[in-house]
Write a structure and sequence with these properties.
Two copies of one chain form a homodimer.
Chain A (H helix, E strand, L loop, with lengths): L6 H5 L9 H8 L5 E2 L11 H9 L13 H11 L6 E4 L1 H13 L5 E5 L4 H9 L3 E5 L8 H11 L3 E5 L11 H10 L5 E5 L21 E6 L12 E4 L2 H6 L11 H11 L2 H24 L3 E2 L6 E5 L4 H13 L2 E2 L11 E5 L3 H22 L1
Parallel strand pairs in A: 1-11, 3-4, 3-5, 5-6, 6-7
Antiparallel strand pairs in A: 2-8, 7-8, 9-10, 10-12
Family (chains A, B): Belongs to the class-II pyridoxal-phosphate-dependent aminotransferase family. Histidinol-phosphate aminotransferase subfamily.
Organism (chains A, B): Tianweitania sediminis
Keywords (chains A, B): Amino-acid biosynthesis, Aminotransferase, Histidine biosynthesis, Pyridoxal phosphate, Transferase
Chain lengths: 370, 370
């Protein structure tokens, strides 16, 4: 006889939403030469971050401020909102878990898109809620169908990413604003804007009015290059933001993470430069795709979905061959989307390695098909 | 109409297990001169940590290894166990939340001691389980009564800290081992050893045999001085350790946190030195107590509970006056224990400030009583 997991926990698989790059390296016994699969920001973080952390090294023994006060004030000032509109957490992943826990329970319905962020789905399953998925349409999340699902199913939560992962597609701000307006007021919209800083200004709807049924998710892991420190935040109405205080780990956002995020937020020039590098890299991926007879989908993110021109099995073979050539990328898994591979932007050297490896991968995938 | 919290979330207060030191400073408008309330390690972290982080600063953009492979290997080697016996998480606080989520559900009973770690209780409430508390006996958690409660109530989880927080007391290893042996096999013992590195070797039971119903909780936040990076780990049987994979944030332990913890673990000489400084400081707090006609309770931790010689109201007045003098400490809140204040060890200068402030605080508390 041993301790028993809860019935819900018993029903869950031991799973990981993404098999990590290091796990893959350990499995193959070979390191990747290019790390272009995690939508990380290989252009790195502002040097001010490391400077601030070095300055604060003598405070490594301090628990973080449980209210992330200074960071929330800085984010509020930056965004023209109040600190009461901001919850800071251990990355968007951590915040998504808390949102699901707060608003969905066994028996609840949650709506997302088929092929959208698996870590959100992981949390939905983890709290025993039922996930209803809506197919993408023309490689975008289907706002009309999502709205229809919201009206019909009255879900507790609806998840939408804009710009989208894994396709890099987006809806213009005014259409997202209209979607928010039309959404039933008792449905919580989790609007994941992890890639927002990479998008043209016309993509992100205004933060005002702040609606009681919308949470905007932002992160320091992408444009700010701080995936290695783990900090995300949610923007919403004070009553929703306060609800996090019921369940969050109050001392979960470490002192050094707060130091790092504050420093990153203070370096606008660096952020702008990263976005410029990113745009150039995105264009380079378009060129590489064309040179190989492939179509790169338009992207408002730091990655590009490349249509490999055939089916999911073909794209999977391309990915596998790239992995054999020690190039780490990922790919969408849902029907239709799965014809693509997903390549993150990164430093020139790594993109060159990808460019070199791609023709061989395509040839290998083609010959295997015959 | 707005999105509705789950019934469970509705029932929870917006609460924080501890009001943070920075929150208190903002409320009073004055910084503390001595930070001796959080059981942090004011002696700091190994300089190797900052060095390793500086070396790894160029990797700040990388998500952490989702398996914390290198850290788990190092911990396994250090402890003579297998990496399969180790789960790494966002501090013990984060791991406690996961344990409660995995093993307790609404309707479950969980046993702890009255006055023991409030963050554990916070998680128990947060997942809707029922908390049954057993009073301390002679300022120690009452093993016999806890065992009795385990037998009678058949709880899902039983929490025990050894050495104990907030009293600093402990049970010898052989008595804890006997307790584990006697515990019903279907009760999960969460044995919190956050302060274990400060305790004499005779306090921590051997890690072997690793029992399927025991999880040993350890941290880098105390002896290793890394509260500002947030890393804890659980040691247990592989089947229990694997269960974390069902619900944990797989990428929650950041890359830089793993770098920091590995570096800290590699500096034994520093750890030994910290423990020596801590022992000297503990002795100093005993002397200061005696000089003020008070009794410092024996402690196997990095803090000392000082019996203020009267009741809880008196000790609260002492704490409040110390706060007015800008000295941050905490105190136990449960009956009987609450006659004490709890003072963390720290650098000489801060202890001197406490020594200077204490007589005034005692005088003020006495005069207020008349």
């Amino acid at each position: 006889m041993a301790p028993r997991l809860t019935r819900l926990a018993q029903s869950l698989p031991q799973t990981v939403p993404f098999v990590g790059v290091e796990t893959q390296e350990r499995a193959s016994g070979r390191p990747f030469r290019a790390r272009l699969g995690g939508n990380e920001n290989g252009f790195g973080a502002s040097p001010r971050v490391a400077e601030a952390m070095t300055l604060a090294a003598g405070e490594m023994w301090k628990y973080g401020d449980s209210e992330s006060h200074d960071l929330r004030q800085a984010l509020a000032a930056r965004n023209g909102i109040s600190a009461e509109n901001i919850a800071v957490g251990e990355g968007i992943d951590g915040l998504l878990g808390l949102v699901v826990r707060l608003f969905a329970e066994p028996g609840s319905t949650v709506v997302s898109s088929l092929g959208a962020y698996p870590t959100f789905n992981y949390h939905v399953a983890g709290f025993g809620a039922h996930l209803h998925v809506v197919p993408y349409r023309d490689d975008r999340e289907d706002l009309e169908a999502l709205l229809q699902a919201a009206r019909t199913l009255q879900p507790a939560i609806l998840y939408l990413a804009n710009p989208d992962n894994p396709m890099g597609s987006w809806w213009p701000a005014d259409e997202v604003a209209a979607f928010m307006e039309a959404l039933p007021e008792d449905v919580l919209l989790v609007l994941d804007e992890a890639y927002g800083e990479f998008a043209p200004p016309s993509v992100l709807p205004a933060l005002h009015p702040i609606r009681p049924n919308v949470l905007r998710m932002r992160t320091f892991s992408k444009a700010y290059g701080l995936a290695g420190m783990r900090c995300g935040y949610a923007i919403g109405a004070p009553e929703v933001i306060r609800a996090f205080d019921k369940v969050r780990n109050h001392f979960g956002v470490s002192h050094m993470t707060q130091v790092a995020a504050l420093a990153a937020l203070g370096d606008d020039a660096f952020l702008k430069d990263v976005v410029l590098q990113l745009q150039a890299c995105r264009q380079e991926l378009v060129t590489i795709s064309r040179d190989n007879g492939l179509v790169a989908l338009p992207s408002a993110t730091n990655f590009v979905a490349i249509d490999c021109g055939s089916d999911g099995a073909f794209a999977t073979r391309v990915l596998r061959n790239l992995a054999e050539q020690q190039i780490f990328i990922r790919k969408p898994m849902a029907p239709v989307l799965d014809r693509c591979i997903r390549v993150s932007c990164g430093p020139e050297g790594e993109i060159a390695l990808f460019a070199e490896a791609l023709p061989r991968a395509l040839a290998a995938a083609s010959s295997a098909a015959q």
